[in-house]
Design brief:
Blueprint (H helix, E strand, L loop, with lengths): L1 H12 L3 H22 L3 H18 L9 H20 L19 H5 L3 H9 L3 H12 L4 H8 L3 H22 L2
Length: 178
Amino acid sequence: MIDQDHDLISRCLRKEVAAEYQLYRRFAAKMYGICLRYGGDEMEAEDILQLGFVRLFQCLHQFKFEGSFDGWVHRIFVTTAINYYRKNLKFIREVDLTEAVDAEAIQEDVLSAITTRELLEIIQNLPIGYRTVFNMYVIENYRHQEIANLLGISVGTSKSQLHLAKSSIKRILESRNK
């Protein structure tokens, strides 16, 4: 796979349209899934996807063949989604974690009763701050300090946004199961 990646990247760097299309086809569906998690709807996800591919082709010369190319592409798209969020951020409601209502963890039996698509819709409908921090912490495994640095917020805000996201998801799931 490394030889195939090297050949494909080399051809893309030479601006071969067929290679660029091949790279797009290889990653579009998977990266769209990332974009859907961060975007509020399909239109935002498509915007992020387009920006991600522009960024990917701009940065392709920086890939050093150290580590997984798939992982490197994934990181480009997550970073693009985060930057999209930061650029379009109007307001994050800062809530002190001690003021937030304590919520229990989402139970696995509740999660198993819904489809991946339903869970994605729930995440997409979260306020942008909740959604972004939830994705970064739960899905991408960032720590709160990293999230705070990347988003320009405090660690406390990151923690409260995550807490409120989980509380919202739990409340939505519980209301669906009544």
